[in-house]
Design goal:
Length: 279
């Protein structure tokens, strides 16, 4: 029986894969930029496994995500910038520094107070590092998925009181933004104007999700999964009749959709199995 693997084993495997003489050609030619999309993809795979409560898959996906950290650290070591131990040291230092109520004598009343303290600490560290952007919105990454960045912008603005009082107020703003979008469409607005108004609607929806403590990405993943299993059931119903959906009129398709919805509400539809390429 093989002995349990350690992080040192994984680091050694990554170093071997990147070895110019004995490594894997694909791994050798990768760069930070080429690996970055895989890093984002693996993070989403982790979130998907959590949404589906698939703990065995979560174990595998966390390993894939850890590999991304090791991959970037190995490339950084080759550049003489830092190594994996430096990454671990940096995050350990940050966690201790950002939690003085746990590792020191500071007092924090609750989770909300800790969130505010965390944001204040981030701004203080940014200023200490010589950052010349003194805005409350400083250091919010521009490489984030935009719905995540929207929530971070809104959350940061809320730390200085620029905040809707409750979800009902955000819903009123959403109705206002939807009306403005309708008006642009009805008036034949330019694609740029319609896109601008559409963006406002999405921004307010992100804010509504934040007020309701709903993660937009998770909610949309759920909506996508629901649509997929219902649509696949429609296809199966059509096939049982010997027909393709493309050959059916929209009213008939809507009847099949209603039947799929009923089956879904009754718990008769399974989550579709997704094919996955090489990892």
């Amino acid at each position: 029986m093989a002995s349990p693997s350690t992080i040192e084993d994984l680091l050694a495997i990554m170093a071997r894969l990147r070895d110019p003489q004995r490594g894997c050609p694909w791994d050798i030619e990768q760069t930070f930029a080429s690996v970055a999309p895989y890093t984002i993809e693996e993070a989403y795979e982790v979130a998907d496994a959590i949404d589906r409560k698939a703990l065995p898959e979560l174990r595998e996906e966390l390993g894939d995500l850890l590999l991304q950290v090791v991959f970037h650290a190995q490339m950084a070591q080759e550049h003489g910038a830092f190594n994996f131990a430096d990454v671990v040291a940096a995050i350990c230092d940050k966690m201790i520094r950002r939690h003085p109520h746990v590792f020191g004598d500071a007092k924090i009343a609750d989770a909300q107070a800790q969130t505010l303290a965390w944001e204040h600490a981030k701004r203080a560290e940014h200023a200490a590092q010589g950052g010349d952007d003194r805005s409350v919105l400083a250091d919010i990454g521009r490489g984030l998925p935009e719905w995540i960045r929207a929530r971070k912008l809104q959350k940061r603005a809320a730390t200085v009181g620029f905040e809707w009082p409750d979800a009902a107020a955000v819903l009123e703003k959403l109705a206002e933004e939807l009306q403005e979008l309708r008006a642009e469409i009805a008036n034949g607005g330019s694609p740029e104007r319609i896109s601008d108004e559409f963006g406002d609607v999405l921004f307010v929806l992100a804010n509504l999700g934040r007020k309701l403590e709903i993660d937009p990405g998770s909610a949309l993943r759920g909506a996508n999964a629901k649509f997929e299993r219902r649509f696949r059931h429609m296809e199966n119903l059509g096939a049982q009749r010997g027909q393709s959906l493309a050959d059916l009129s929209l009213p008939v398709q809507e009847e099949l959709w209603s039947e799929a919805r009923r089956a879904d509400h009754q718990g008769f539809l399974d989550q579709p199995t997704q094919s996955r390429g090489p990892q």
